[in-house]
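Feature request, filed as a ticket because there's no other form

It would be nice if the structure record came with a short human-readable summary line next to the tokens. Right now we just get the raw output. Example of a typical job, pasted below so the devs can see what we mean:
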Amino acid sequence: MEKDMTKGSPMKLILGFAVPLLFGLLFQQFYSMVDTIIVGHYLGVDALAAVGATGSVNFLIIGFCMGVCNGFAIPIAQEFGAAHEAELRRYVANSVWLSVIFAVVTTIVVSVFCRPILQMMRTPENIIEGSYHYIIIIFLGIPVVFLYNMTASILRSLGDSRTPVIFLVMAAVLNIFLDLLCIVTFQMGVAGAAVATVVSQAIAGFCCLLFMWKKFPILKLSRDERRWDRDCVLKLCNMGIPMGLQYSITAIGSVILQSAVNGIGSDAVAAVTAGGKLGMFLACPFDAMGSTMATYGGQNVGAGDLDRVNKGLKSCSLLGLIYSVLAVGIVYAVGRQMLLLFLDTGETGILENAYAYVRTNVIFYFPLALVNIVRFLIQGMGFSKLAVFAGAFEMLARGLAGFLLVPYFGFSAVRFANPLAWIFADIFLIPAFFYVRRTMAGILDRQKEQ
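Raw output as currently delivered:
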């Protein structure tokens, strides 16, 4: 079941790992889109805007949880690449302990402060109740976010990117059924969409856990390996917390920007919601490339082979460039028609703004590709703290757009906020990679001398 990414053609390995991962991400976005489609068509524009207004704060918190899980998996990938099985199992056990602690604390804190955050973001009065009912249920489901993402990250660290996808596809189908049941049959409103998402992810997480326990002998823990290990915990926190903060710091800029969009009105929120959903769907290949490079970088650094790291970066960057060009063609050919999945044809003003938003973003997809590829590669090599600065650069760009540009230029400035953030991040990340590589080369040379 495990896949060793330290041997063989980097391009073939990256494609073989990324394609199943991409399939899973597409389904993840698919059932997120189904939420939006059903909410928009059955509950109306205000309900669509209510869900959309929670997007940035959702990413702020859930992104932190996902980042922490991805960070916890990096030492596991490194120990797998180094063939240190006992150490690998200790990291797995301690990542579970930490995930439980993080899940409980995060759920309590964000649930208490949920409504004040929405008020601080100037969520329009006509949608704030719907926004609260949706996001509070999502936040109460944070433990299942940790369950799925931690188990899926461990499986990917061992080279298995297919199994999490299988269970995610199953969850996607279930989510669609539950959406229709909760929203249409039980008439639960936007809360029904949140319930469907949490229940579906919980099932996917439990399935991953059961599969991992039964099918991976390498993960059979002894009593000693299950114990709390201070050194393991410190290293896991040094990897996981910076990755979580990277997502959250990035999301702070999105919260500032969302607040500015909220100030324009619910129609603008609906346009960004529809455009953002389509954009996230189209950007799934970049997320798959990033997760692939985290595992690829972790295993090859564990094996002490930096030349393969360079080859992997070149191969994945080429893939990112090819897809970026393809995505531009897709949006310009059928982008407006795809947005009609979320909006009615009569909502012409919202539709045109949503299309302009997507059209502007897709032109800058190659900088986005580099953000994901280089940032996750740096993290996989063990330098998670550096990636936090990339998130800070993105936050700065979106903050400038939200505070300075949107109040003066309105929706036109919203269109360029994400591209500006991606370019700012690349300005930091590209030199940072060369620094990381030089530093890692020195570390490996000293290890060989000892």
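Something like this underneath would help us a lot:
The longest helix spans residues 411-449.
The chain has one domain: 10-449.
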